[in-house]
Amino acid sequence: MPDTSQPEFRPFADDAGVQNFENLSFENGTTRIALHGSLDLTRDRTGLDRARALRAVLDAIVTALEAEDLPQAVAETTRASTTVKNPFA
Asked: pTM for the whole thing?
């Protein structure tokens, strides 16, 4: 079940929000949402509740994506590398 003590997860709304389900987390971003961890969906009432909660978050993500005119792919941004002085030298 989602942690109800957390603020509502709004997909793509910010670069800081996280929605946790036990050992699975959805890390929000304005251009992507990263999933980390694992979630056991057992064949019982608890598993059904977890599957429904997971579906609710995925439905919110799909709804947010369908509401926009999306590019074919997100532009990747990279930063040039910088050289720093070795603090151990």
From this structure: 0.74
